[in-house]
Amino acid sequence: MPRPEPGDPPREPEPPGSRFTVQNRQRRFAVDPPALAAFLERIAADVAPGDRRGATLRIVSDRNIRALNRRYRDKDRATDVLAFPADPVPAELLSEDEAVYLGDLVVSAETAARQAREAGVELGDEIRVLAVHGYLHLLGYDHERDRGEMVRLERVLRLRHGLARN
Question: I need a surface site. Which of 68, 106, 113, 145 has the fewest CB within 10 A?
Answer without folding.
Answer: 145
